[in-house]
Amino acid sequence: MQETPDTPATQEERLAALTDRLRTVYDLGAAQALMHWDQETYMPPQAVGLRSEQLATLSRLSHEHLVSPETEATISALEGKDAPDPKTEAGATVRLARRSFDRATKLPESLVAESARATSLAQPAWVEARQRADFALFAPHLEGIIDLQRRTAECLGYGDHPYDALLDLYEPGARKAALELVFEELKERIVPLLARVTEAASREATARDSVLLGEFDEAAQEAFVRSVLTDLGYRWDRGRQDRVVHAFCINIGGPEDVRLTTNFSPARIDKALFTSMHEAGHGMYEQGVDPAYSRTPLGGGVSMGVHESQSRLFENLVGRSRPFWSHYLPRLKEAFPEAFAGVGTEAFYRAVNEARPGFIRIDSDELTYNLHILLRFELEVALIEGTLSVSDLPDAWNERMERYLGLVPENDALGVLQDVHWSAGLFGYFPTYTLGNVLSVQLYQAALEDHPEIPTETATGRFETLRGWMEEHVYRHGSRYDPEDLIPRATGRPLTAAPYLEYLEEKFTDLYAL
Amino acid sequence: MQETPDTPATQEERLAALTDRLRTVYDLGAAQALMHWDQETYMPPQAVGLRSEQLATLSRLSHEHLVSPETEATISALEGKDAPDPKTEAGATVRLARRSFDRATKLPESLVAESARATSLAQPAWVEARQRADFALFAPHLEGIIDLQRRTAECLGYGDHPYDALLDLYEPGARKAALELVFEELKERIVPLLARVTEAASREATARDSVLLGEFDEAAQEAFVRSVLTDLGYRWDRGRQDRVVHAFCINIGGPEDVRLTTNFSPARIDKALFTSMHEAGHGMYEQGVDPAYSRTPLGGGVSMGVHESQSRLFENLVGRSRPFWSHYLPRLKEAFPEAFAGVGTEAFYRAVNEARPGFIRIDSDELTYNLHILLRFELEVALIEGTLSVSDLPDAWNERMERYLGLVPENDALGVLQDVHWSAGLFGYFPTYTLGNVLSVQLYQAALEDHPEIPTETATGRFETLRGWMEEHVYRHGSRYDPEDLIPRATGRPLTAAPYLEYLEEKFTDLYAL
After folding, report:
1. Which of B58, B235, B253 shows the shortest C-beta gap to A50?
2. Helices (H), B292-344
3. Which helix (H) or strand (E) holds A185?
4. Which contacts qualify for A116-120: CB closer than 8 Å, 24 or more apart?
5. Which of A234, A252, A259, A287 to mutate to test binding with chain B, by most B CBs within 10 Å of its CB?
6. In A, residues 205-224, which contact B (CB 8 Å cutoff)?
7. Which residues contact A366 (CB under 8 A, 6 or more apart)?
8. pLDDT digits over B342-380, tens only?
């Protein structure tokens, strides 16, 4: 081990030096997060160009601090003789610092710059292609991005499949082969279930969700949403909620500052509420991380999939449940005295759970959602490994839509062009949505085994037990345990799709009297 | 000149390298500005500690980038053979970069740290002292801060007087000796004028400003304020206005993002309006700087005094003028149909210009304001030079209050403890308020000489000519010219108090029929 005289002498001192150095990276990250939040909420429109320059500077500084030879030397020394026990916080810190350092250094600057340029050109091309429903306008950009994603995967390195390298960026430890098994299981049971639901629904005279339509004052919606989020346990003294075009949750550097955003649909009562409960799930996770992990590699949620488990848990398992509406429908009626006259809990519960195949992923229901993801997962794996060409992509999309959802999009704007992800170079991201769905039920069941009273509490608008269980088993650990360690610790077994499928089958068999 | 091989070879390349390096400093400054803005407007309360850590990191990074040996070498090389003409933008860039570098390097880190610690401890002590009206609680802190300010002045260096070194931080080129002449002139003419006004006012049965009192809906106030600011020419596509406890204007890195803040008093119609016009004066200055100066030393307003000239100009010379209210009173009555019945332009004009000696600077009127500043200027000069001790300060304050304003505060909360500045180590800052007042009239008169139609335009709610003149002669130059160059360029002569005094005498002689 080559060491300069001023390198700290003990492992303890080295760890302190590493943590100190990384704090700068995290604080620069917080500044970038605040700039992003501001850009989506309150920034004056003319400042777009200026802000992008500022963000580029902060991103460069952050990279410089992370990849410095001092960081490398310190991490290497910590990994050497007397390395901290991997099971301890110190061990996790070194492991996560190494992961960040490797990710930041494995990609040559030229590849990073080329990728940034390609996606920034692809964005407006994708917007135009979608507007005109003309895939040809986007195809050459997508080809370039896929090539860059392949090169990225080669630089990052992988065991079995290049897709694993990309997946790992969003879901550490996840592998394509394992995911395929999960998706296969989902496909085998959800596709026939959906067919039975669709058949049953076709015999109904009116759409179940028609009771959700009307004219709903935004201020009244906001007040109702706020009261629900307060009940769930989202802490307003450590967060806030603002209006944006596309909802998100963002952590500005620590559990003391985790902000939600949402948007209000004046014509539909459920949109803003479920969006907000979803984002509050993300938010409570970030707010619940051990404050001692702030500004260290242990801070923040561990993966996209675990994050999504929390948003889906509060959106679907809580928000689309009978006990929830037995408590909140009367309150919703108080907030909107003119609406929902004569609508009972059961009708409302059926309305917020209507399953209906559609073209658009973000408008899809709990049952069809994973089929949208499955399709994208299969296609992006094939694109990355080169068994599907970009020119064949729209046909492949439509063929799978028909097979899984029984629909063929009228045009590519309603099909292959609907999502922003690929134009932004986000390959390997989609499957984390389904991982989140699967894990939400596995975690909920584990909480229920410890506390069978959870549904009863939900029916009284209390969520301390459920949130407390998540806090204890998931939130507080931040990024300390990778998902493959965290999930068995929390639930006693590795990730498994069975509880999720049982939940879906039971719920929708009951809902549609199958 | 010692140069390493990779130092740029030509002066042009050196200038580009310097500008490039400083851009990082300005972008870090923009991130800090956004964090400050956010802290005052929307940040969750529990994030205070986290935010202060983040700000400390950004401040340290910014300092490190500014004071690096590379910066010094580049500036020195630029100042050497073939130095750019000081009259050019390049020359100004080098001059200003040198000033920033010297300020950042002349103070030893230990002194900076000691000052930060002293003021952060002094803040809560001052708050408590003011709450209890007990100067003794604050006195030891103030003694420490004055000692640190003296040491700061010694490190920065000065010609005649240590106060000059502090003054220069806020008003480059200003000198105590010159300021004393200005203040002497103001004192000689304002003190007797105020005495005559007070005597005349004492014969009036009711307070003139009673017509401004009532109950005013905040949303209606906000809409009215917004319409006035739009008319003035504040650009909402490059800014915004939010609510805070203490109003301010902040530039988030360039003319495309300059934000105002204000607060609304439900019981008084004039507070939010004049506060907003004041901040919009600052804001239009920053919005009007040549965009090519963005992220360089030439960007942003040049000094506190020139800045205050713009805020005072729009607050007082425009906002408290007859032509302004001949146009806006009818509009105010439309916004508040219940209020101001039977109040004419003249009565309203008199109401917003009521002169009445009071204890509190921030509540004072156009006539008495400078006496509050004069008193502080005299006292802080004496404190810095050591001719006044902290223990004698409250008596000296009260003695001067009686001499200049004819009042003695009942307690120190209404006297020497009222302002935050000294507890924050801001010595040399107060006089820039009066410089701004003086300069506002000098600039307004110069604009009027070029465009005698300005008051007529004001009376129709149009301000393009006035704002256009300021843009041409002040705003667009940013920091390129120091005030001592900028003022003669804009007005044809150096700073002079005569026009300001004539303005005050004419206005208040007329208002009080002296």
Report:
1. B253
2. 304-312, 322-335
3. helix A176-202
4. A118/A144, A118/A145, A118/A148, A118/A425, A119/A145, A119/A423, A119/A424, A119/A425
5. A252
6. none
7. A316, A320, A353, A355, A437, A504, A507
8. 999 999 999 999 999 999 999 999 999 999 999 999 999
Using N-to-C axis directions, what is the helix angle for A431-450 and A498-511, rounded to 10°? 90
Q: What ranges in A203-238 are assigned the alpha helix state H?
A: 218-232
Spatial neighbors of A119 by CB under 8 A, at least 6 apart, are: A145, A423, A424, A425
Distance from CA of B233 to the nearest CA of A (A): 16
CA angle B293, A27, A310 (to 5 degrees): 125
DSSP string of A88-121, one letter each residue: SHHHHHHHHHHHHHHHHHHS-HHHHHHHHHHHHH
Tell me if residue B266 falls in helix, strand or coil: coil
SS3 content of chain A, % helix, strand, coil (to 5): 70, 5, 30
Give CA–CA dist B333/A460, Å, rounded.
Answer: 51
Q: Give the distance, in angstroms, between the CA of residue B409 and the centroid of all CA atoms in the same chain.
A: 26
Nearest residue in chain B measured CA to CA from A292: B50
**B44 and A240: CB-CB below 8 Å?**
yes
Q: How far is CA A220 from CA A122, A234, A265, A320, B78, in A?
A: 40, 19, 12, 21, 62
ipTM at complex level: 0.93
Q: Which residues of A touch B35 (CB under 8 A)?
A: 31, 34
CA distance B138 to B383: 15
- Is beta strand B241-243 parallel, antiparallel or unpaired with respect to B249-251? unpaired
Read off the pLDDT of residues B192-231 as tens digits, 9 standing for 90 and up.
999 999 999 999 999 999 999 999 999 999 999 999 999 9
The answer to whether A40 contacts chain B (CB < 8 Å) is no
CA–CA dist B441, B313 (Å, integer): 7
Enumerate domains of chain A plus CATH numbers: 11-170 (1.20.58)
**CA distances (Å), origin B166, targets B61, B377, B495:** 24, 12, 20
Chain A residues with CB under 8 Å of B240 CB are: 42, 44
> What order of strands is seen across the sheet that includes strand B258-262?
B241-243, B258-262, B249-251
Tokens 């006012």 locate to: B201
- For B268, phi then psi, to 5°, come to -140, 125
Reported pTM:
0.94
pLDDT tens-place values along chain A, 514 residues long: 344 445 557 999 999 999 999 999 999 999 999 999 999 999 999 999 999 999 999 999 999 999 999 999 999 999 999 999 999 999 999 999 999 999 999 998 899 889 999 999 999 999 999 999 999 999 999 999 999 999 999 999 999 999 999 999 999 999 999 999 999 999 999 999 999 999 999 999 999 999 999 999 999 999 999 999 999 999 999 999 999 999 999 999 999 999 999 999 999 999 999 999 999 999 999 999 999 999 999 999 999 999 999 999 999 999 999 999 999 999 999 999 989 989 999 999 999 999 999 999 999 999 999 999 999 999 999 999 999 999 999 999 999 999 999 999 999 999 999 999 999 999 999 999 999 999 999 999 999 999 999 999 999 999 999 999 999 999 999 999 999 999 999 999 999 999 999 999 999 999 999 9
Which residue is it, tokens 């006297």?
A: B415
- Greatest alpha-carbon pair distance for chain A in Å reads 81
* DSSP assignment letter at A424: G
Residues of B involved in catalysis: 279
Q: Are B438 and B184 in contact (CB under 8 A)?
A: no
Separation CA B325–CA B345 (nearest Å): 6
